[in-house]
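Input (structure):
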């Protein structure tokens, strides 16, 4: 059968430009993938920050095959598989905050929408039915569904859908390189966290259900790491106003940032944790919501309460067994520790590049961002019609390395940037290749955009 892209519509891409020269992936192994023409690429983004343990892990694939022979499907409304029970237990044992129960979805966007409903029901059972709104932050991403997009502070993806979005307020981001409050680290005061309280007060506190945040902002902000005191202050604000703290670990979980969960870096104790992506390393679609003790106990108190919500393919036996094997590999090969060490090496190499276009190098573990500027001293951003990050990414792909190159998602607030987030199994020699290719592409960009 002839390969034709005519009937296909891509995700997060312009269909016309995508189909001009589509990258058709044929196979993958380790940290590499090959296209339909036989060209080999080093995957510097792990698919989309997903394939944490690398491609082609036979023990995961074989476990999935065995599971298909035994039980391919069940629906979680009236039955549950042994693998779903085992995975639920395994996840609660490794998650921060003493999580008690797991609600399975098939991805991160579904997890966000599920958390909206869980938080709403929790407050209703507490006699506070007026609480329904989430507070989130600008320069953030929590999913493509209407609920997830309502939470997201991602201006371009919101633009055409604004009339459909829920009325959720957004706080300033924790963005130290371009502090929204004009502060420097020596006089910071972590105003990005404390200002959330004033926003809540302005928005009628009794209407606020939860505050949702990524511990480290990924591809929307180029690996934005908050000040160390940030989440401690946020936790105190949430407790003061009876608001739940929802931590979105969809991208940052399962070793990506050098800890099993990014929350572990600061001892964050969420009420709800969202997860997906690295839980199965992309071998099967799965995500979920972890409920803390107060929420789990409220749902099970007295006669219990029906949570009228679910997904046809949530917690499929095959996805659960893939995730269980994935967790075994992450633990056995100490990939969180490896990610932390590799990330420090990668940042060091990037910082050593003698490029005027580099404004900031940041991140934790193997979630690393490089912010691009026209002038390092003034931190001048590139114009809206200058797609510098995307052009660098395109040039890198021609050289056999896949990275993300993105336009600042909030015009005037953030410049173009690169994101490097390879599989956690990557070796230093392969990181050197990524840095070398990036350096070549930065040289080309400097000649074009910096006089």
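Output (sequence):
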């Amino acid at each position: 059968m002839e390969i034709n892209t005519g009937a296909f519509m891509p995700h997060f891409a312009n269909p016309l430009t995508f189909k001009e020269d589509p990258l058709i992936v044929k196979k993958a192994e380790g940290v590499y993938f090959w296209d339909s023409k036989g060209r080999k690429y080093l995957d510097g983004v792990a698919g989309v920050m997903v394939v944490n343990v690398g491609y082609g892990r036979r023990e995961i694939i074989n476990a999935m095959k065995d599971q298909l022979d035994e039980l391919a499907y069940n629906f979680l409304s009236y039955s549950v598989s042994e693998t779903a029970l085992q995975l639920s237990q395994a996840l609660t044992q490794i998650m921060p905050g003493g999580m008690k129960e797991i609600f399975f979805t098939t991805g991160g966007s579904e997890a966000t929408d599920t958390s909206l409903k869980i938080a709403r029901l929790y407050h209703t059972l507490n006699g506070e039915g007026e609480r329904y709104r989430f507070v989130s932050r600008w320069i953030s991403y929590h999913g493509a569904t209407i609920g997830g997009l309502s939470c997201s502070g991602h201006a371009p993806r919101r633009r055409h859908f604004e009339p459909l979005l829920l009325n959720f307020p957004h706080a300033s981001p924790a963005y130290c390189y371009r502090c929204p409050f004009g502060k420097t680290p020596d006089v910071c005061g972590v105003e990005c966290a404390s200002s959330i309280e004033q926003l809540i007060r302005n928005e009628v506190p009794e209407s606020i259900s939860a505050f949702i945040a990524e511990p480290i902002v990924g591809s929307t902000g180029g690996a934005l790491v908050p000040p160390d005191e940030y989440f401690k202050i946020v936790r105190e604000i949430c407790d003061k106003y009876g608001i739940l703290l929802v931590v979105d670990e969809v991208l940052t979980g399962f070793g990506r940032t050098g800890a099993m969960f990014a929350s572990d870096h600061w001892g964050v104790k969420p009420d709800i944790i969202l997860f997906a992506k690295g839980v199965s390393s992309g071998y099967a679609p799965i995500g979920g919501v972890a409920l803390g003790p107060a929420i789990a106990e409220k749902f099970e108190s007295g006669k219990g309460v029906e949570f009228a919500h679910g997904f046809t393919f949530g917690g499929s036996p095959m996805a659960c067994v893939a995730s269980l094997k994935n967790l075994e590999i992450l633990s056995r090969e100490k990939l969180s520790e490896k990610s932390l060490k590799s990330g420090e090496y990668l940042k060091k190499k990037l910082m050593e590049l003698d490029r005027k276009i580099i404004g900031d190098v940041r991140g934790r573990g193997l979630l690393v961002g490089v912010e691009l500027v026209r002038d390092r001293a003034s931190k001048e951003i590139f114009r809206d019609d200058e797609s510098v990050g995307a052009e660098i990414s395109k040039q890198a792909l021609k050289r056999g390395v896949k990275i993300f190159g993105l336009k600042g998602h909030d015009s005037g607030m953030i410049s173009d940037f690169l994101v490097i987030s390879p599989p956690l199994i990557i070796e230093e020699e392969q990181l050197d290749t990524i840095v070398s290719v990036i350096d070549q592409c930065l040289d080309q960009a400097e000649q074009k955009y910096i006089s």
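Notes: The radius of gyration is 22 Å. The chain has a mean pLDDT of 95.
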